[in-house]
Amino acid sequence: MDTQNTQTPRSSFLPFPELVEAGPHDGPWTVADSNAQDWLPTNGATDKLGKKIYVPLEKGGEGVSLHELAHVRWSPDRFPRVRFPLICLQAVEDARINLGLRETGLPFELDREALAHVAHLAAQDVKAGHLATTIMRAIASLGTDAAPVLQAEIDALPRRAAEVADYWVRRTEDRLLAARLRVDGPVAPFRVAHQIAKDLARDLGRRGVMPKDFKVQGLGCCQVVIEGEEGDGFLGRARRLSVYERMLKRERRRRGRRGIVAGHMRIARPPLTERQPSVLRAGVSRSRCGTEGTRISRPDRLAIDRAIFSRTGAGGGGTVLVDTSGSMSITAEEVEEIVRAAGGAAVVAIYSGSGDAGELRIVARGDRRVASDQFESFGSGNVVDLPALEWLAKQPAPRFWLSDGCVTGVGDQGCDELLERCKTVIERGRIQRVDDAAAALDALR
Amino acid sequence: MAPKNTKKNNVPQPVCEEWDFVDDVLASWAARTVYLWGPPGTGKSYCATRTGLRDREVFSITLTPETTAAELRGFWIPKGNEFVWMDGVFIEAMRKGARIVINEVSHASHDVLAILHPILESEETARLTLPNLETVVPAPGFQVVVTDNLSLDHLSDALRDRFKSVIRVGRPHPDALRRLPEDLREAALRTFDLESERAVSIRGWLAVHEMEKEFDRPKAFRAVFGRERGEQLYNAMSLGAV
Asked: Which of A116, A202, A219, B1 has the most CB within a 10 Å radius?
């Protein structure tokens, strides 16, 4: 059994909201790795109007993916304007769809790390005496395997507080289940969740336990608003991580439990409008067997495919991948020179990135290449070294990687785990690294 | 039905033709050279080898970088005390006036691309002189259908110019869809044109349908797509069916 996350490609964890959305299919969704989004309040988010879904693309994130798909399936495209803290509606909505998942036979189960994190946050809230926060968290966990954890925290509250919390958790579950039975569907109607949230907010407000600007760390995955955007009907706004959360992330990075993730790479194929002559002996010259020739070197193949003659041909293949990040200090003219020297090579591509994304651009293929203006670098950092190397490993051999060997991911930051993954790809893909343009030209000539 | 012109992320996409039109073009005597392209697993090779044949024989070849021109044109083989000429698949198709289907032309070596030039010429000028000095002219009915996932852009100007018909297909073939039950058919239509990391071709859905004859659905998905991806697809299908 594979227990190492590094061995399972990221693409295996990509969800399929297109298969879940109700109504006619009108185009693909954008799927992004929530681990690479610092601004998200939770590790999963859904934006139904923008058709974007953010989930952790790693082992253990399947439960979050399922939860977000349930939002795609059952949550409204946009929440109504409400006169009470939106987090109440988000918590009850989470309960509605989690109970729906349980009834459907697809329960939302968190992995051990996530369960421990939820328990930690709940214990923090109880210790600080945040009753409303504890109630929201317990309601949102209904139908999941975190519910008993939150119930244990409720039981640890002072008696009167525990009674209030217990009352609202049970009442929410009972009302949602009763409504589901009335409509004979997988989930209760959204209007029922809306009414429950309204009643909850009113009661907690009357008891004086609802803070004015009420937010709960780790809740609010649906109806996410991208920073800087606000539309009609959206009252929630994603917030930056707190000081504590940033410290926690740095600590995890230091201990290597999460590490830096590779950026999202886009492959660009600009038109190959210029012709370039095939350079004799470009790439690695190799001997080939054929059915015609003057030198018989493989008589054993007479009975197989009759390719008994061999001849040494000009290098007719190979792939060159050029890192054009700022650290390489490689100019557009040098890239063009490499492309010319590799004339006849299968593919030449350049890549760079910034932030959490990058681009790999194919600039030459065979005897054709792009216009000169396409050789300019488009990002100052690397960011996408790992997906670029994974792409290179699938291209025709021999494979050259022109780079200084430094690899980075999101935020142009590196880590040991990312470096090890890149090394594995290089080894398996038999990729040769060359340090600079001069070395690349020597290898190709 | 008019072809669909769609936009993905506000970028206009090439117009896709419907399969009825593709069948008509393939059956046409005038469409001597056809370039058929589109997403993988949509049925291009299937259609090219089965529809519009009009009693013609079909030869099919899938190109790789290692395919030599000799394989396609012909080669000498020893027979007794002498070497005799053996026609390759191109020459055989030309002599018989058959349809030759060439798959994955983007993987073709320069050797093979060079030999495509004279074969894709018009009826008046298409001919190939063999090493045995025989000149072969295509018989009436000879047709070349090239299929690929990429557009024509990756071919040289000269080769691009030689195709009388260029067709992009954007949906899986209806015959393939008819073999699927309704839920898998809908899933196939929603996933065949996703980005490459997530796209699921019709082959995958057909494989699931076949596997379901011996396994339950979760195991069928797991067998076809692997544990993690199979689980993602199965969960999404289950949730979508509710």
From this structure: A219
Same domain, A378 and A423: yes
Tell me the shortest Cα–Cα distance from B83 to chain A, in angstroms: 12
For residues A236 and A135, membership in a common domain is answered with yes
Task: Show Cβ contacts of residue B33 under 8 Å, excluding neighbours closer than 6 positions.
Answer: B120, B143, B144, B146, B162, B163, B164, B165
In a domain? residue A376: yes
pLDDT confidence bin for B5, thresholds 50/70/90:
very low
Q: Among the three residues A255, A273, A295, which one is the final residue of a domain in this structure?
A: A255
- pLDDT tens figures, B162-176: 999 999 988 888 888
Residue of A nearest to B196 (CA): A11
Q: Are B101 and B147 in contact (CB under 8 A)?
A: yes
For residues A226 and A348, membership in a common domain is answered with no
Give the start-to-end residue ranges of the domains of chain B.
7-168, 174-241
CA distance A116 to A110: 9
Same structural domain, A216 and A270? no
CA distance A440 to A157: 68
pLDDT at residue A287, as a whole number: 65
How many structural domains does chain A have? 2
B66-109 pLDDT per residue, tens: 888 888 888 888 888 888 888 999 999 999 999 999 998 888 88
Residue contact A291–B76, C-beta within 8 A? yes
Show the domain range for A338. 264-283+318-444
Tell me if chain B has a CB within 8 Å of the CB of A14. Answer: yes
CB-based contact B242 A306, cutoff 8 Å? no
Q: Which residues of B touch A106 (CB under 8 A)?
A: 235, 238-239
61-100 in A: which are within 8 Å (CB) of B? 62, 65-66, 69-70, 73, 100
Sign (positive/negative) of CA torsion A139, A140, A145, A151? Answer: negative
Q: Tell if the CB–CB gap between B232 and A70 is shorter than 8 Å.
A: no
| The predicted structure's pLDDT at residue A383 | 85
Instruction: Say what the pLDDT of residue A257 is.
Output: 43
Does A244 share its domain with A138?
yes
For chain A, how big is the Rg over CA atoms in Å?
A: 28
User: Over 90: is that where the pLDDT of A295 sits?
Assistant: no
Hey, which residues 344-403 in chain A have their CB within 8 Å of chain B?
346, 365-368, 396
Same domain, A107 and A11: yes
* Half-sphere exposure (Cβ direction) of B87: Cα atoms closer than 13 Å: 13
Residues A221 and A323 in one domain: no
ipTM at complex level: 0.72
The 3-state DSSP class for residue B97 equals coil
Q: pLDDT class for B158, splitting at 50, 70, 90?
A: confident
- The arithmetic mean of pLDDT across residues B207-213, rounded, is 95
pLDDT at residue B207, rounded to an integer: 95
Q: What is the pLDDT of residues B132-157, one digit of tens each?
A: 888 999 999 999 999 998 888 878 88
Top-tier CATH class for B7-168: alpha beta
Whether A239 and A271 share a structural domain: no
What b-and-e string marks burial along B148-167, b requiring 16 or more CB atoms within 10 Å of the CB?
A: beebbebbbeebeebbbbbb
In this model, does residue A108 exceed pLDDT 70? yes
In a domain, A289, yes or no: no
